[in-house]
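Job type: complex structure
Entries:
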Amino acid sequence: MKRKDMDLKTAIRQADHIVIVGHYNPDGDAVGSTMGLKYLLANMGKAAEVIYPNAYAQNLKWMDPAGSAVIYNERTEKGNALIARADLIFCLDFQALGRTDAMAQPLTESKAFKVLIDHHIGPALNEFDLCFSETAVSSTCEKLYKTVAAELDAALVDKCVASCLYAGICTDTGSFSYACRHAGLFHIVAALIERGADTVRIHRAIFDTFSASRMYLLGYCLHRKLVVMPAYGTAYISLNIEEMEQFHYQAGDLEGVVNYALSIEGVSFAAFFTQRKNRIRISLRSKGEVDVNEFARQHFNGGGHKNAAGGSSFEGLAETLARFERLVPEFYEKEIKPKRTALAEIPLI
Ligand code: 5GP
Ligand code: MN
């Protein structure tokens, strides 16, 4: 059913085998949107299989209590069979198939009708048949709610769907601290609460379930590994594999660490470097108008949003940090200094 002019309702109605895909290292928005869509499709009488390139963190498990999602790097054959059989594939919370790591090849080869629902900058429009992409929203979960309300029926959102969507909104806004200036978001949150989302318990399930070793690792990062470059409004943290092993690192343990570096007064640009098997993963965050998406694209093979982006380096950790330190002065002059000055001049009240 490869028809570019098909609308969402028709695509779903005609589909026999639906697959929903999230990005590599699925976060709260990726799991919330994919599981939320799975439950929503079930409410339309349509079964769907969710596939992630790798495992999500334990604190998101409550959204998939049955463990129904296929983790591609653990069950590659099963994942390939589902993709090969699919006639409709939803791609959520990423803008290009490359963000699905090893799944990118089977997804590219698939002849299924592909629907993108996302909020990242620069969607690869040629890779999808139907795109619902908007960068002004907080999260894919918000965009999914808007898409359902416009194209399907908001009444399909029950407690189960609402709870998953709330989880994604809550995580992608850092508990409503960024990407949440628009009133429309709060109307949607109100609707999710009316549908039954328990905002207090969801927040607790996601943010108050860390292991003690995660807290020790966080303490180590802040006490021993935080580098502040006050002259450039920049701070960064790095971890090598030995350090991560020393603290019994588990998926999700490093989620949010970069935000501590950004929360220092006078810091408008924060970075977090973690050594992986064959690369260095980089998380970038910024305040206000300072744009880290462009920085990630230009220097670290990545991208994302204005205030939160990521990328990779294929040099060693020391080389990557040295290169980063060399890039910072120019980034400060071009991006940080002019933009943060402009923002500071606007009175808050
Ligand atoms: P995080 O630092 O939490 O891994 O990612 C921050 C944001 O940047 C997320 O919205 C994520 O989707 C995006 N991002 C992270 N890594 C990459 C990457 O390698 N490429 C692109 N295009 N976006 C990324
Ligand atoms: Mn997202």
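Summary: DSSP finds 13 helices and twelve strands in the chain. The mean pLDDT is 96.
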